Amino acid sequence: MILKRTEFIARVNIDEHTLETWLSEQWLMPLREEEGEAFTEADVARAKLIQDLALDFGVNEPGIDLALHLLDQLHGARTGLSLAKLRK
Amino acid sequence: MRNPYEILGVTKSASADEIRSAYRKLAKKLHPDLNPGDKKAEEKFKEVSQANELLSDNEKRAKFDAGLIDASGNEKPQQQQRDFYRNYAGANAGARGANPNYESASAFSDFGGMDDVLAEMFARQAEARRNVRGGDLNYRLTVSFLDAVNGANQRLTLPDGSTIDVKIPAGINDGQTIRLKGKGEPSRGKGGAGDALVTISVQPHRFFTRNGNDLVLDLPVSIKEAALGGAVKVPTTTGSVMLNIPASSNSGTQMRLKGKGVAGRGDLLVKLRIVLPRRADQQLNELLKNWIPDAGDDPRAEMLP
Question: Which of B53, B74, B137, B266 could serve as B213's disulfide partner, Cβ 3.0–4.6 Å?
Fold first, then answer.
């Protein structure tokens, strides 16, 4: 299901300002379509992760930035490894 | 449901800080998104986060300590099935709803020699993912009985206000699905759009019913038409035709109009039903009063014990 900006805000339960921050920090990088952003389930799950980090773990903004950066590398590496495994 | 204090490994007298810190230690190891390779983490994480939800809320914790609510929280419904980010990343990045913008290949860009191979595969994989065909979308469309029998063109209005023209083929059945190629979700790359799947529901008709490719019609006839026979007008799905009723036709007599069924493939079965005049008819009543039926003709003869 593709979500528009307003639908995404409602689904994740954040305000416009928070979304703007997350977008400008590039924590969220939604796909773009002619009519604007097109959020997917991956973006919803990622937003929930950001909320967990901020609320449950008490991580501040620079910490979240770092955690997401490392996590994206981790997933990239996992993809690389699973591809290498497939090739073998 | 285990005791939430046990789950978090704290004592009953633990302070809010102790609980928070115990939860963070456990959650760090169990949060599925912080441990993408641990498949068993999710169940345990659910338990731990539920225990935390209970104990980090002073009011709930007090109620639990007093035995007013159980360890599952209270009357509040179980937390919803949660979708974690890891389900869309790494090996799952091909999942529907995934977003290829996030993953980065930089973690192995220094693997001398190996990086070329991996980086290239990575790039190819990402490209392939972007070019996956868009998803199929499901719709429902209700059509009238006659449109289903004869075929029609209908316009389907989508939630976003756009429309799709749907050609209903003659003879479509209730519950059948029409596939409209390329009318589903667009691809994120060059994969082409998915299809729209339109499930058809057919409304019932006032007097026609369907039996495979045959149509069944209950046709009211007057006493005079039934007794003396003659031509009567019969509706079909494509206009009226004249039907010759033989003399002395009884209620329930079935007559077959060849080729007047569904889309010319079946027949129209006409079942006669004798009806009295709508208003009591003086003339008919007089006639019947003077009529002496054949003594041997008892319509209920076969019902007698």
Answer: B266
